[in-house]
Each structure stands twice: as C-alpha cells, then as structure tokens.
Specification:
Largest interface: A-B, 69 and 55 residues
CATH architecture of the domain at 300-500 in chain A: Beta Barrel
Strand content of chain A: over 45%
Distance between the termini of chain B: 53 Å
Shape of chain A: globular
Radius of gyration of chain A: 25 Å
Low-confidence stretches of chain B: 12-18, 161-168
CATH topology of chain B: Glutaredoxin
Oligomer: heterodimer
CATH topology of the domain at 300-500 in chain A: Porin
Number of strands of chain A: 31
CATH architecture of chain B: 3-Layer(aba) Sandwich
Largest sheet of chain B: 8 strands, mixed
Number of helices of chain B: 7
CATH superfamily of chain B: Glutaredoxin
Structural class of chain A: mainly beta
Chain lengths: 500, 168
C-alpha cells in the first residue's frame, strides 16, 4: 500500500497540541503590512565532454531555475520552476518548466507555519538534515507541513512529509540524489528549553520510512536524540554535546522486516577563545549510523578523503594564535581517530600561518599530512597571496601541491600527484579575470596531464555572471564550507544569477 | 511590430530591478538565545546594513571588520549593522570562537538553514550585504567584498554632503 504523505503531514501538524486561538491576536499586533515580491533566476549553459568517455562529442546543456516569491505581512509564498534541456545529449533527461519547489509560510512572533517544501535539520545534522547547497545542485526538502511554536523559555517544532529532491539541478557537477524509484516519508519534531540565556537543552525525534516504487515499505528508521548547547560557561568557554540513537529495520527476502543493529551518533565540541587565542576540541563517534538524509560534522580539513561518516570515531584539536594586532597568525590542527570501515587509524596534522604586510599584501601558507597506517597517505601544501594593486584592484595567486598514495601496502601503489596554480586579477568590484593551470603527471595519458582554464566574473547588486573555458582535473571542490569530490570537466559554461 | 510586447516585457523586467522594494521580513535567533526580527532591528530614522557571512569565508570577515570599525568610529552616523551568520551545522562550532578572536561585538543572527539568506539571495554566494533604508526598503545590495562599500552606503543614503561623512 502506498503511503499517503498528505495524511502523514496532517497527523504531524495535528500532533502539536497548540492553541490556535493565539494566532489572530498575533496578526492584529503586526503593523500595517505591505506587499512585496521577489524574482530570481539561475542559469547554466554548458558545452562539455563526458568525463566518463572524453572521446564522445561534447554535449550542450541548459539548466535553469526561476523562483517567484511574494510577501504580505507575516505571510510569504514562493514557487520555483526548473528546466533542463540537452539538445544533443540524452533527450530522456530533458525537463521542461517543472515545479521543483513551492512554499507557503506564515511567520508570527511566536508561531511559524510552513506548508510545501521546507528544509529540516535536527541538532548538528547527524540525525537528520534536509539542506540546500546550490554549488552541488542539492536542495533536499520535506514536502509537507511544519509548525513551530516558541517563546522565551521554549521552542517546539513538528514536521511531516515526503522527501523532495531537485529534478533539474542547476549545477555543473550535481550530486546524485539517489532518490530515483523510491519515496521517503519523514515525520518528527523537537523541543528546546532555554535553561538560561546561555544554555539550551534540546530533545528531538524522527521516524522515516523508505518505499520502493510500486512495492511495500522496505526500511523504517526511528531516531531519538538530545543536545546541550552552552556558551560562556566560563568566560570565553563554549560547548556543544549531542547524542543520537537510531533503531532501524529492513525487509529481507521471505522474512519480512528484520531489526538491524542499533546505531549511535555522538558529537561534542569545546572551544575557548579570546582576542589572541582560539582553541577547540571536537570529537565524533558514529557507529553503524547509515542514513541517507544527514550532514554530520566531519572534522576533516578541506582536503577530503574520508567519505565514511557512518562508522568512525575521531577527535580534532585546533589552536590559532594571533600576534601584532592580527597581522600575523599561526595555527595548527590535529585529527586522530579510527575508521572502522577502512579498519585503520587516521592521523592528520595541519599547520598554517597568515601574514599581513601593511594594508596591501597578504600571505597564507598551509601544509599537512594525512595518513592511515598500511592503507594510504596524503601530503598537501598550499601558498596563497593577495596583493593590492590599486583602489578595489587585487592580484591573487594560489599554488597547491598534493601527493596521494591510495594503497601503501599494495605491490602496485596507486599514486596521484597534483600541482596547481591559479591567478585572479580583480579589475574592480564588478569585474575579475582568472587563469588556472594544473599538472597531473601520474594521470593516464587518455585522461590528460595538463589542465588549463580561464574564468571571467561580472557582479553587480542584482546580477552575477561567470564564464569558464578549459579543463579541470576534478578532485576536491569546496562550496559553502563543505567539500566534495567532483569529476573532471572539459568544456565551457556561462552561469548567470539574477535576483530582484 | 510583433516584437513590441517582447521588448515591453524586457523593459518592465529589467526596469523593475531598479525599483526599491520592501526588505523581506524575518525573525531569527541571536547568538545567545534571544530572538530578533527585522522590524525590531530597524530603528526609527536609521538605516540598517545586513551582512551575511560565514566563519570559513575570509572576505566576509574582512567586510565585517571594515563595516563594524567604520560604524564604531562614527557613532553619529544613522546606520546600524546586523550580521547574519550562515554557517551550517558542520562548521557551527566556529562561530563564537571566531567572533571572540576578531573582537566582534555586533549582534549576530544565526541562520543555519539559510531561511533568511534565501529571501535575500538565491544563489547563496558570499560575502553578500543589503542596505535597508529608513522606509524598510532594500536601497542597495553588495555581492562580494567591496572596499568602497561604505562610500556607496553613504552615497545611497544621501550622506555624502553632510558633515558626518568627513568624520568617517
């Protein structure tokens, strides 16, 4: 039997035992509302080779999303239409003006009501995270309803609906959503108590069911967790603790639903800072925590090797000291732990230094070594400089080197060497040009050893346009503080974003 | 002649961008637990600079430093600042230490799910700032770090010829 997500959403909405009679009085308190609207448009036109088979002819793709929004007092609504056209690519992947997202929101002083697509996250994203990251073409939402009530002492939230992922992402390297042929329904909620102005205690819960298309539900998850967030417990000392337990069951052929081993997801951080020193200790302990809709803290540096966030225990220590009124900073981090999927320990020390010479020249040098004994190792280093050449004009130069050995104990080591240089000149706050070069001597000849590219960026308050031509070797790409591995790219693209 | 409606649409479409529009309303949680709305932040007769930032964004920190120091150096300027942090859960542990390390003491609204950010900028690129005038309208937006941002703010608010500007 197919689950009716509308019914589940209504149950979730109704489960909040809240007094609806409060709402009209809150509306009356609002000063005279005015209507406003918004329009945004994001386009990417790309002509690129298939990274899996560069011998095939390049294909043209247009990816486009328009979002229209309106707001009247505390009520707002938005709808996003997407299009993906590939005239000489695979026509079966074309999408024409499909409605990807729609949201109706009411936001009063103590109440928030949302219908349609909403982003949901519990704690630090270990138990659940439905989030958006445009650079990777990710916009996972819950299509249903969500209600929140809050006052100065507590906050209660409840939500329910089905997972809705982008059908036509506007991104060069969209992350695979893995949602094809299944429906996922999630309902849950949280309650937070403000124990004092600096201490918050939260409990959260959600239940998830996974149903392959045309079949019965084959997986069910239930997660319960709690978190404690405290600031300035002693002057300058902040901390966060979170613990989650997940029970889940999955159907086995001929045996019905079978209970799986209980999973745990724990995270803690403790930091101390003042004007000269920033120190932090973070620890994660994830045990058998396999769940598709999460974004847990990884503790990894921007050099991403680890993809295991389900069965790993690790801690990271970091410290940064500033000198000469912030003109000089030195810092170091050290990650250590155990990756139970790889059956190996992890060590990753990193050291860096930042230097400002007057108001015109900045340097940053960084180096590190990540290794898993008998498994793999990675040495990385980078140098960044920024030189002011005039009013609003800069020259930025970045050099990076990285040596990776993915199989130390193998008789045939798998080595990857990357040497990259990137220069950008900012002519004004509106316009900049960049050139990049990467040399990968360890690549097979058919994948290429030299990668050259050029970019031009034009920005105003309402328009951002970026043109790219050339090749990239793939590897790590970072956006919004998150790094992912992406495939190589050969071709050209024009990306525009307009917002009124 | 057949293209007339199309050109009219283009003129309207791009012309609308030049009109000031009401700043999208929001309320969010301040670092420290209290809640604040745009209406509460916008004080009578004063404009507001909304600075969207994240701990991992170096130009954002440069912009925060620039804006806060210039506002501090001239308290008579009728402009306030509200910083909106968009760090997600993955980097949220860095917010308080970063503020302390840089000595920032302005109010910071936490927007980990980008609910406020999405209302102001859909492509979510940083740094991004919006100047909200005394009428509650978006007078100007800034994408990327602008060295002359403060001069443009003054120009937009008509403060260029006042005696205040010389003190900034």
């Amino acid at each position: 039997m197919k689950i009716k997500f509308k019914h589940l959403a209504l149950v979730a909405l109704g489960s909040a035992s809240l007094s609806w009679s409060d709402i009209p009085s809150l509306i009356e308190e609002s000063p005279s509302p005015s209507f406003s609207w918004s329009f945004s448009d994001h386009n990417i036109f790309t002509n690129a080779k298939d990274p899996g088979d560069p011998s095939l002819p390049a294909t043209n793709t247009l990816a486009h999303q328009t979002t229209l929004g309106g707001e009247y007092g505390p009520v707002s609504a938005s709808v996003a239409f997407s299009t993906k056209l590939s005239p000489n690519g695979a026509p079966e992947l074309n999408r024409n003006f499909i409605v990807d997202k729609k949201t109706l929101t009411g936001d009063w002083e103590n109440w928030e009501l949302k219908l349609g697509d909403t982003h949901q996250e519990l704690g630090r994203g270990i138990a659940l995270s439905l989030f958006s990251n445009p650079a990777f073409g990710v916009d996972n939402t819950l299509e249903g309803g969500a209600v929140k009530y809050r006052n100065s002492y507590l906050e209660m939230a409840t939500f329910g609906g089905r997972v809705n992922v982008l059908k036509a992402p506007v991104a060069i390297n969209p992350v695979d959503t893995l949602m094809e042929g299944r429906q996922v329904v999630i309902a849950g909620g949280s309650i937070t108590g403000n124990l004092s102005s600096d201490v918050k205690l939260t409990a959260h819960y959600h239940t998830t069911s996974n149903q392959p298309e045309g079949k019965a539900v084959n997986k069910r998850y239930q997660t319960v967790g709690a978190s404690l967030d405290f600031r300035n417990i002693i002057s300058g000392l902040d901390g966060y603790l979170e613990s989650n337990v997940m029970d889940w069951e999955a159907s086995s052929y001929g045996k019905g639903m079978q209970q799986k081993p209980r999973a745990y997801g724990n995270f803690a951080s403790l930091s101390y800072s003042d004007l000269l020193l920033k120190t932090k200790i973070e620890a994660k302990d994830y045990r058998s925590f396999v769940y598709d809709f999460q974004r847990p803290p990884t503790l990894e540096e921007e050099i991403v090797l680890a993809t295991n966030n389900s069965d790993v225990t690790a801690a990271r220590f970091s410290a940064e000291r500033r000198f000469a009124e912030g003109a000089v900073a030195i810092g170091a981090t050290y990650l250590t732990g155990e990756d139970r999927e790889a059956k190996a320990n992890i060590h990753h020390p990193v050291a860096y230094s930042k230097l400002k010479l007057g108001s015109g020249v900045e340097f940053e040098i960084k180096g590190g070594y990540r290794w898993m004994p008998l498994k793999n190792n990675l040495a990385h280093g980078s140098l960044k400089t920024k030189v002011k050449t005039g009013k609003g004009q800069y020259l930025e130069l970045e050099l990076r080197k990285q040596n990776l050995n993915q199989a130390i104990s193998s008789p045939l080591p798998i080595q990857e060497e990357r040497n990259a240089a990137h220069a950008t000149y900012t002519f004004s706050e509106k316009f900049s040009l960049g050139v990049g070069y990467e040399f990968m001597p360890t690549n097979l000849a058919e994948l290429g050893n030299h990668f050259v590219n050029g970019t031009a960026t034009y920005k105003t308050g309402v328009l951002t346009a970026r043109g790219f031509i050339g090749q990239t070797s793939g590897g790590t790409q970072c956006a919004s503080g998150v790094c992912r591995q992406v495939p190589p790219y050969t071709g050209a693209y024009l990306e525009t974003a307009v917002a009124f | 002649m057949a293209n007339k409606p199309f050109f009219l649409f283009l003129i309207l479409f791009f012309g609308m961008g030049a009109l000031a529009k009401p700043a999208p309303q929001f309320q969010g949680e301040l670092l420290g637990g209290k809640r604040i709305s745009l209406k509460q932040s916008l004080k009578p007769g004063r404009s507001l600079i909304l600075c969207f930032w994240a701990t991992w964004c170096a130009p954002c920190l440069q912009e925060l430093k620039e804006v806060s120091s210039r506002l501090k150096s001239n308290p008579s300027l009728p402009v306030d600042m509200l910083a909106i942090n968009v760090d997600t859960a993955e980097t949220a542990s860095d917010i308080a230490p970063t503020l302390k390390l840089y000595g920032f003491d302005f109010p910071v609204v936490l927007d980990p799910k980008h609910e406020i950010f999405s209302k102001y900028q859909n492509s979510k690129s940083l740094p991004f700032s919006a100047l909200v005038n005394t009428k509650g309208e978006i007078a100007k937006t800034f994408s990327g770090f602008h060295e002359q941002m403060f001069d443009e703010v003054k120009k937009e608010l008509g403060l260029e010829s006042s005696s205040i500007e010389n003190k900034i």
